[in-house]
Design goal:
Length: 678
């Protein structure tokens, strides 16, 4: 074994000469082989409370198991407030030094893109096509790290000792940044080692400083993260240990680092994880010469750590940088983000920036910088997912303009991917930021974005689409300004006592304006045809789709919300509840609280139709005529009296507001499908 170690050190020294690497001191050989398990939790996993509760129970039951849990501040907040028993179990294992908790960034930012885009551009190891653009905002990454660590410090009375970059996306500048903010360790894909071969952890040296970098071992990591579903758990575990034994026999490395992305694991193992992890974790009792160590314990043992000082930017995603770059939707998304981010920087340095407005704009930019949005934009085989991601990105960028009081450009009111006339390759040849061209088509589908978690969900609607089928005109009333009928968001928060609905509109800043606005929320509790009413409230000239027959309707007008319950052929009013209204420069929010005894059940299982309508101050529906007047809205087709009094609606994904409303032109009432909270 000593000869093997000597040979490995000689080979490593030769690689150091070629690749700019250095070797640190080598300490005495250890008799045990370590496995460091890092479990990366994505923000979307906050809702997997039952799964992570079970995972912690399995860890607790197997005394030899240790793991490092990497979570975001959002996941922490969700679990601590919404799943206190889960967080209590994590804290207990943390206290026992069996689970170490570290925080990643506030959002899943692709760090190399923001820390030094110029280095990334043209310096990747794959064939990814990156747009030419001015884009380098190291402060964004640093700020997200620091904010997360402030939350961590308040909980643990200390700062985390390490950070796991989202997607394992790293560059030399990223590692140096992490070291400079105080991280003692980070993680990276094996490709950063070049031709050195595998080492479980190395030191990255810069400016007389160093930071440990735990290197993901792909084969073992994937056995857990993406196990072969055709193999039973015992067979997978045998294969796992066979590979570990091979590493041990080589005798030239002291251990391995296994990194699992929870999102991938649960997608495959959600129904069988208890058996699989129970079998895997209990098998550690049979291997006395293998121990599980937390990252801090590995560093404390003083294993020999080769030192590197250069590598090519890398990620452990199989797609490489193609995960975020290459398609026209991704391309235009990055270009739009770069332009808006530059606008925020200009505003910040203008000398006229208001702190509150700048803070709001910055928060929205940080959300827009989430790498998962750009991954979704690249799923060209799933256009529904692409359009949802596009809408989410445009919503965030639009909110930046609102925060700073700037006019929202027309380009953000239509899918960004449709603004590109040339190919990505052609536009890449243009220096600087690629400017968007005129839209290729006029889109009809502006998809709803559904965000949900434990005890809440949000439906995000398109901005600026309060025009019915595209032809509707506001009533000719002086006080009405554009935006009063424009739905932005419908939110639901619920617990055992009550259900809270919040509806945001782009306008309606005065009480007089709001007196002409009606907002309806129809609820289909069971998705059963015939179990409820199909006609919507009388006078609206609209129907629910038969399989979305509604049981309840919340009708908001002014400061009152009337709750109606459907019967066999009609509906009755159950009660009237107060509506609280708040306004800001970004619009208006209606807020109503309804007791759970009135609306029984689980809101996330229901289906919803949310729309805005024109009413007179007494609450009666206006008509849609050809010409707008003080008592009617305009834009209806010639010779019809059944145009639905619907200016804006939150449609299901893939459905067109325009096509739904213009059904009346065929001579029949328009039917509206409901949104399902998936």
């Amino acid at each position: 074994m000593q000869n093997n170690i000597f040979k490995r050190l000689v080979l490593t020294a030769l690689f150091c000469v070629v690749f700019g690497l250095n070797i640190q001191n080598v300490k005495a050989e250890e008799t045990t082989f370590f496995i460091t398990l890092i479990w990366y939790v994505t923000p979307g996993e906050a809702k997997l409370v039952d799964e992570y509760t079970s995972l912690m129970k399995i860890v607790k039951a197997n005394k030899t198991i240790k793991l490092c849990l990497s979570i975001s501040p959002q996941v922490y907040n969700s679990w601590k407030t919404g799943a206190p028993e889960l967080w209590k179990s994590i804290r207990a294992l943390h206290t026992e030094n069996r689970v170490s908790v570290v925080f990643n960034t506030m959002n899943e930012v692709v760090m190399p893109v923001f820390v030094n885009y110029d280095l990334l551009y043209g310096n990747t190891t794959d064939d990814a096509v990156l747009p030419r653009m001015e884009f380098s905002y190291q402060q964004d990454v640093m700020d997200q790290i620091v904010r997360g660590w402030q939350v961590y410090s308040a909980e643990f009375n200390a700062y985390p000792d390490g950070i796991v970059p989202a997607y394992g996306a790293v560059s030399p500048q990223v590692v140096e940044l992490l070291g400079s903010v105080g991280a003692k360790w980070t993680a990276a894909p094996v490709s950063v080692l070049g031709q050195m071969g595998y080492f479980p952890v190395v030191n990255y040296k810069f400016q007389e400083r160093k930071i440990a970098v735990f290197i993901r071992e792909n084969e073992l990591s994937k056995m857990i993260e993406l196990p072969d579903i055709l193999m039973n758990p015992s067979e997978i575990v045998k294969t796992f240990w066979k590979r570990v034994e091979e590493y041990k026999r080589q005798g030239d490395i002291p251990g391995v680092t296994v990194i699992v992305t929870g999102e991938k694991f649960w997608a495959i193992q959600k129904d069988y994880f208890t058996e699989f992890l129970g079998t895997l974790f209990s098998s550690f009792n049979q291997y006395q010469q293998v121990v599980m160590m937390l990252p801090s314990e590995v560093m404390a043992r003083g294993y020999f750590l080769p030192a590197i000082n250069a590598f090519t930017p890398a990620t452990w995603l199989d797609q490489g940088w193609n995960a975020w770059f290459g398609t026209r939707w991704q391309h235009t998304g990055w270009v739009a983000l770069a332009q808006v981010r530059k606008m925020v920087d200009t505003y910040k340095n203008s000398g006229r920036a208001e702190i509150t407005a700048l803070d709001r704009a910055t928060e929205e930019i940080y959300r827009a910088e989430d790498g998962s949005v750009f991954i979704a934009l690249g799923q060209e085989f799933d256009q529904e997912r692409v359009k949802v991601a596009d809408m989410k990105l445009r919503q965030g960028l639009t909110n930046v303009y609102r925060a700073m009081g700037n006019k929202i450009p027309a380009e953000l009111k239509q899918p960004l991917g449709e603004t590109l006339q040339n190919t990505v390759t052609q536009q890449q040849q243009q220096p600087g930021i690629v400017q968007d061209t005129a839209p290729v088509v006029s889109p009809e589908i502006m998809d709803t974005v559904v965000n949900k978690g434990s005890g809440y969900f949000d439906l995000m609607d398109s901005i600026g689409d309060d025009y019915g089928d595209g032809n509707y005109v506001y009533p000719a009333i002086t006080v009405l300004e554009k935006g009063v009928y424009d739905l932005q968001k419908f939110s639901c928060r619920y617990d055992e006592q009550s259900i809270e609905f919040r509806i945001n509109t782009s306008g309606g800043l005065t009480q007089e304006q709001r007196s002409y606005v009606g907002i309806h929320c129809y609820i289909d509790m069971n998705n059963r045809q015939g179990a409820g009413l199909i006609p919507l409230l009388s006078g609206l000239n609209a129907y629910a789709r038969p399989d979305n027959a509604w049981e309840f309707c919340v009708n908001i007008h002014g400061k009152a919300a009337k709750v109606f319950q459907s019967g066999v052929s009609n509906y009755k009013m159950l009660g009237v509840y107060d509506v609280n209204v708040s306004t800001s420069e970004t619009g208006c929010e209606y807020h109503v609280l309804i007791p759970k005894k009135v609306l029984r059940g689980t809101p996330e299982r229901w289906r919803y139709l949310v729309l805005s309508t024109a009413v007179s101050p007494d609450g009666a529906f206006m008509k849609i005529s050809q010409q707008a007047s003080a008592t009617t809205a305009g834009g209806a087709s010639v010779g019809t009296t059944i145009a639905p009094v619907v200016f804006d609606v939150i449609p299901p994904v893939g459905k067109s507001q325009k096509l739904m409303i213009e059904q009346y032109k065929t001579g029949r009432f328009a039917e509206f499908p409901f949104v399902e909270i998936k």
